[in-house]
Design brief:
Length: 687
């Protein structure tokens, strides 16, 4: 049967109230939507590109309403048809009501969307849902891995990864283009990509200053269509589910897992002055936190104008089913949740001991074994790193990020906490019987300085965002190595490269799950902008020419990832104790300072820490690591290994290719001590 849509009025019947959304079959499409308080509802049908609707169907509450659902079956409707809803509440004129996007839409058309016109009350500028084809014949996509213990996560922006002209792809900025770059990801050695938001978002949701500068929402933390892949990331938005699924399948075929950064703490509708897109008209008092003294005002724990009322049973149900769809139907392996501490708030904003949503997510039959990663804080001061509610949730370890940044820039007296962070943050996760893999270690991410900027700027430089440098964090824990920003000073430039090598080394030598920011491996710079949320341009895009210009750093990161992979002792499944393990000849970890077994725990000026890791498997060699972030060189003793010698695997003070060497190229050390250069990391393998 042809899928062509004829420009003639459709016949229609009552339809069914479940499932919500648009469900096509061989004869037509069933449309259903939830609205408890609506007294009148219309369905508007569009042909692709037309400004005016092909047909408007007025629903009869006696036939087309079941409980709080409105529904209609449209005979002859086909995939590709665009549609919107109108709902009227008591004493509201339906003809003047805004058109709404179906929250269950599997694909979104934003060609006619105008945020500011909609905010001004103008009609005819709505986001439209697209009826999508059902792929019953597609086999399920099984998760690549349900275990993050051996993961190396790579955070990337789908659009920015391939929009630069140097990307040389057929469809820049799309899921299809990401497929073309899979060989690069394989060669790098990462195991999972963590995609910045790919659910349909409002690119026009930016402050007036950014609008005046011609900027849009680039990162995507402004969701409008929770079930739909973002239309701009698709070659054909009407095939959004198929295109996204093809990308996931290709990554899985390459052995790479897919984690999605998802935003359920707020929506693109913003606060009182924001546009009506869907939930404000369909279920405003259910879906959002409202001020009890003025129900027209939205409580804001997110810094984005509104807060999703996550623990209302209907909202929890919506979110859980949405996640199950992305996992079961589209093949996603796991999720990272933006500002997830919002999930712990009740309808009055108070913190709950056992909130419904986190438990419902992790106990879902579909999601129970998939990685769930919380950004365990919100914009209103709730900070739950180490205490996010639930049983097996992992967390972005902000405590790790801050401590390592301070240590690398040269802060003193951090050795005790550094040891705790390096070994998986047992103080945070041990008391609740969680494991090292519950902590996702990162030093840079999309939000903040890139690695190159972390070692090149003392302060943020965000004027290009149009907010007079008021946006973005003022506390970056960075150090510019002696000059702010661009410089020709060779000494400063070499120190920055060494510091970058130090950061990578510490991250990939730490217990827990490491996460890298895409572009750091080629020292991408945003010229000091630490809040590039609106910079959809070369400031943010991955510049593929840097594979050649920064080949030494790229090689270093690849070899460092390979080193981590060949040492299971760096990926311990339980917290290290410093004690002899059953059947072992060595304690799992020994701590040192300049002298063996004498770590500088209580020295307020200490900037040196060393440790020796025992093998976790019979064929693994012992590993010895020394961090020296002081400005002076020093000598450190090496532990004796009868019948074996230490070989220099990594030394961040050396130039490429001697900064890191695979085992066949390593040279043995002939002494029982080693000279450590200033601000350097040394790694030795025993053979």
């Amino acid at each position: 049967m042809s899928n062509a849509i004829e420009a003639v009025p459709f016949t229609f019947s009552a339809g069914q109230h479940l499932p919500p959304g648009a469900q096509p079959d061989a004869s037509g499409v069933n449309f259903a939507i939830f609205s408890r308080d609506a007294v009148a509802v219309e369905l508007c049908l569009y042909i692709d590109g037309d400004a005016e609707p092909l047909q408007v169907i007025r629903l009869d509450p006696r036939l087309n309403r079941t409980f709080y659902f409105w529904h209609v079956y449209v005979e002859g409707a086909r995939p590709g048809l665009r549609y919107t809803w109108r709902v009227a509440h008591a004493e509201q004129n339906l003809a003047m009501a805004p058109e709404l996007l179906d929250p269950w839409a599997r694909a979104v058309d934003d060609d006619h969307w105008n945020r500011r016109a909609t905010m001004a009350g103008e009609l005819g500028h709505a986001l439209r849902a697209i009826v999508t084809k059902r792929d019953e014949r597609e086999p399920p996509l099984r998760p690549v891995s349900c275990d993050l213990n051996d993961a190396i996560i790579y955070e990337l922006h789908v659009g920015g990864f391939t929009r630069h002209p140097s990307a040389d792809v057929q469809h820049p900025g799309t899921f299809a283009a990401l497929i073309e770059k899979i060989p690069y990801l394989q060669a790098l050695g990462i195991t999972h990509v963590e995609l910045l938001p790919v659910m349909a978002f409002d690119e026009q949701d930016v402050p007036p200053g950014a609008v005046a500068n011609g900027l849009g929402n680039y990162w995507g933390y402004s969701t409008c269509g929770f079930y739909a892949p973002h239309p701009r990331y698709c070659v054909d938005p009407a095939r959004a589910p198929q295109e996204f699924r093809a990308c996931v399948r290709a990554l899985h075929d390459a052995g790479i897992g897919v984690l999605l950064d998802v935003v359920f703490n707020h929506t693109a509708e913003g606060g009182k002055e924001g546009p009506v897109i869907s939930f404000k008209a369909l279920a405003n008092d259910i879906f959002y936190h409202l001020d009890p003294d003025d129900r027209s005002r939205y409580r804001d724990y997110t810094g984005c104008g509104n807060t999703v009322n996550c623990n209302h049973p209907l909202v929890t149900n919506f979110i859980v089913h949405c996640l199950e769809y992305w996992a079961a139907s589209l093949g996603v392996d796991g999720f990272r949740f933006d500002l997830a501490s919002v999930f712990a708030r009740d309808e009055n904003g108070n913190v709950m001991a056992n909130p419904l949503l986190p438990w419902s997510i992790e106990l879902s039959r579909v999601l129970i074994e998939r990685p769930l990663i919380a950004e365990a804080w919100d914009a209103a001061g709730l900070y739950q790193v180490g205490a996010f509610p639930g049983m097996h949730w992992s967390e972005w370890n902000g405590r790790y990020r801050d401590l390592v940044r301070r240590f690398v820039r040269g802060d003193r007296g951090l050795i005790g906490e550094l040891a705790t962070r390096l070994t998986g943050s047992s103080d945070l996760y041990g008391p609740s019987n969680r494991l090292p893999a519950n902590g996702v270690n990162f030093i840079t991410c999309h939000d903040g300085f890139t690695l190159q900027d972390l070692v090149s700027y003392n302060g943020k430089h965000n004027v290009a965002n149009g907010e007079n440098n008021r946006d973005g964090s003022d506390d970056n824990l960075s150090w510019n190595c002696g000059a702010e920003g661009d410089t020709d000073d060779a000494t400063v430039l070499e120190l920055r490269r060494r510091q970058a090598r130090n950061v990578f080394a510490i991250l990939l030598l730490s217990q827990g799950v490491p996460m890298l920011l895409a572009g750091d491996e080629v020292l991408h710079s945003q010229r000091g902008n630490n809040n590039a949320y609106c910079q959809d341009n070369e400031l943010s895009w991955f510049d593929w020419t840097r594979q050649e210009s920064q080949a030494d750093m790229l090689r270093y990161v690849r070899e460092l990832i390979a080193l981590r992979k060949r040492h299971p002792s760096l990926r311990a499944r339980r917290f290290l104790t410093g004690e002899l393990q059953s059947g072992a000849d060595l304690p799992d970890i020994r701590w040192h300072g300049r002298e063996l077994d004498k770590p500088l725990w209580h020295d307020p000026s200490a900037q040196l820490l060393a440790f020796t890791l025992a093998p976790a498997q019979p064929d693994e060699p012992p590993l010895h690591v020394v961090f020296n972030m002081a400005d002076e060189s020093c000598t450190a003793a090496l532990p004796p290994l009868p019948g074996m010698r230490w070989h220099r695997a990594l030394d961040t003070a050396r130039f490429s290719p001697d900064d890191i060497l695979p085992p066949p190229q390593q040279q043995a050390l002939a002494t029982d001590s080693v000279e450590l250069q200033p601000r350097s990391v040394l790694v030795l393998e025993a053979r």
